[in-house]
Design a protein that fits this description.
Elements: H1 9-20, E1 36-41, E2 48-53, E3 58-64, H2 71-89, H3 100-113
Helix pairs in contact: 1-2, 2-3
């Protein structure tokens, strides 16, 4: 089991950039990490989330330091939020956040990275 690490916004950005270089993300037109605000929260009710604010022209990925305790968890959380980001950039307007389209990408990512879908 991976040990606990101190999650920072800089670590989240670096992990995001590393994931962007791997399949399938390297084929997606995702923005560079400096275009996204990474925030570390103390949220206990979620692992993280993606938010886009059109009014202020920013995108943010938040990571809960309470629930994300190691690099494996951080990678899976970021990959999860990267799907949301990708669907958002493609202007996908599905009825459910984790519906059929989201799950198609989740299965592909988990297969590629050797993760269990039920953990994702």
């Amino acid at each position: 089991m991976a040990g606990r690490v101190h999650i920072t916004s800089e670590l989240a950005r670096a992990s995001y950039e590393r994931l962007r270089m791997t399949a399938p993300f390297n084929r997606w037109p995702l923005p560079h990490g400096e275009k996204i605000a990474f925030h570390v929260t103390g949220d206990e009710d979620r692992y993280g989330h993606f938010v886009e604010c059109r009014r202020w022209h920013f995108m943010r990925i938040a990571v809960s330091a309470v629930n994300v305790k190691n690099l494996h968890d951080l990678d899976m959380l970021l990959a999860h939020e990267m799907i949301h980001l990708y669907l958002h950039l493609r202007k996908f307007r599905g009825k459910k956040d984790h519906g059929k389209t989201f799950m198609k990408y989740a299965r592909r990512i988990c297969r590629t990275h050797g993760w269990k879908l039920e953990d994702f």
